[in-house]
From TrEMBL:
Residues 43-240 form the Tail specific protease domain. Keywords: Receptor. It comes from Schistura fasciolata. This is Interphotoreceptor retinoid-binding protein. CDD domains: Peptidase_S41_IRBP. One of its GO terms (molecular function) is retinol binding. GO terms for biological process: proteolysis.
Amino acid sequence: PDPGTLASVLTEGVKNTISDSRVKVTYEPEYVPAVPPAMPDIPPEQLAGMIKATVKVEVLDSNIAYLKIQHIIGEEMAQKVGPLLLEYIWDKVLPTSAMILDFRSAVSGELSGIPYIVSYYTDSEPLIHIDSVYDRPSDITTELWSMPTLLGKRYGTSKPLMILTSKNTLGVAEDVAYCLKNLKRATIVGENTAGGTVKIDKIKVGDTDFYVSVPVAKSINPITGKSWEIDGVAPHVEVPAEDALETAVAI
């Protein structure tokens, strides 16, 4: 008689059957499918202001850059506000001797932003195959490669890079952490990440108000031949998330 309870029971049954915590059954009579927003036609300065609100930048003692990122922007947005982001954020951290990327509360992002971030910590040549993403509905595999040219200068390959993670770090941020970890370019400090997915679809069950959330794409790392999905990204240095910054600074 209670649809919400039924959805919970079905979700538990699915988890016990296929061991994939990303698959969920929900009862949502008010659900309206989300339409991806078009690039807002607002001035780049205002867009940059919105992005600055989700990024915290600081130079810590010992000349260590600290960047806290909650959302990884995509290629289209980066092209539009790139010069302003360089001025507000990147130019401040370029002269530092080490960098900490804080992904502990990063739960959203765009796939096209992955090559952007990774490329700032790699060389321009040779190009590196970063990731392959298989999309099941279209049956297309997209290869992500490092970028030969970028807005502004690269941070390079020699200065230490730490990435902070928590059990809530989800999706695209997990992909970035996994790529940089397996390129041996970053040290991961914190907790094992959530083990999400790069893309999830919500499918309506017949003519009901029940929906099944199902991953419809898969990330396959060219170095490991495996994915960070389901299992998450394991840190090099495992500490509670709240101690990760202090630990990274000490390292």
